[in-house]
Specification:
With 137 residues, the protein is α+β, with helices and mostly antiparallel strands. Helices cover 45% and strands 18% of the residues. A five-stranded antiparallel β-sheet has the order 1-2-3-4-5.
Length: 137
């Protein structure tokens, strides 16, 4: 599955406008990810049975759906990574955008369902350390 590259080496620094501009694309990608995860959950039991009986040469009618869901999730997460966005929690659609604030790198923080970037946090803290991003920066 998706393996993020070393973030320090390939880190893109965003402006607030650039990060906000990516939200529609991220929402589309997260729709694909959520749909894929739903398919995995729905087919999980059937895939477990097929796996347990693999030595008998069996298969599963849901196998292609399962494989396609894995592929869609992987491709979507890869696309997010290629945009320079850091995935923090794929379950809730939590992302960080490296941002230059007062001469140092911090993370702009966005979660699926938010219409724009309103939060930031230190690179050493996470979601719980979110602070309101002033409008003027």
């Amino acid at each position: 599955m998706f393996e993020p590259e070393d973030q320090q080496e390939n880190e893109r620094v965003f402006t607030r406008e650039e990060a906000n501009g990516l939200i529609p694309q991220l929402e589309e990608l997260w729709t694909l990810i959520k749909h894929g995860k739903s398919t995995l959950v729905q087919t999980r039991d059937e895939i477990k049975k097929a796996s347990a009986n693999a030595h008998l040469g069996g298969g599963s009618l849901v196998g292609p759906q399962y494989i396609q869901a894995l592929k869609n999730i992987n491709e979507s997460l890869h696309t997010v990574n290629e945009l320079g966005v850091i995935v923090k929690d794929a379950d809730i659609g939590l992302c960080d955008f490296p941002y230059l604030l007062n001469g140092r790198i911090v993370y702009l923080c966005w979660k699926l369902g938010e219409d724009k970037i309103n939060w930031w946090h230190e690179t050493t803290s996470g979601y719980s350390g979110r602070q309101v991003l002033p409008e003027n920066i």
